Predict the 3D structure of the following.
Amino acid sequence: MPYAAGDAGKGAAIFKRSCALCHTVGAGEPNKVGPNLHGLFGRQTGSVEGFSYTAANVKKGVVWGENTLFDYLENPKKYIPGTSMNFVGLKKEKDRNDLITYLKEASA
């Protein structure tokens, strides 16, 4: 099933609980364990300047959009074998939709 708009408020809570330890979303904020996600939509995997990616992320060559993120966030290690992202994913479609909806707003 493809992405469908969710609840950005619930997505913000998911981000805070599951993503904020490793990622930032604001313009000019630093990379952490994971890259800054500002400008995520329309960006190719492995392309944030100053962040050291695995070869798997660089070679994947996916452009991030609602549907690619929807698939990726279900199981990152299955979507990009060899990624160093230590996150098991979000199994519930609603949670992925809410998170992506939040990211569309927060990372723009």
User: Anything to note?
Assistant: The helical segments are 8-18, 55-60, 66-74, 76-79, 93-106. The CA atoms of residues 74 and 92 lie 8 Å apart. The chain has a mean pLDDT of 94.
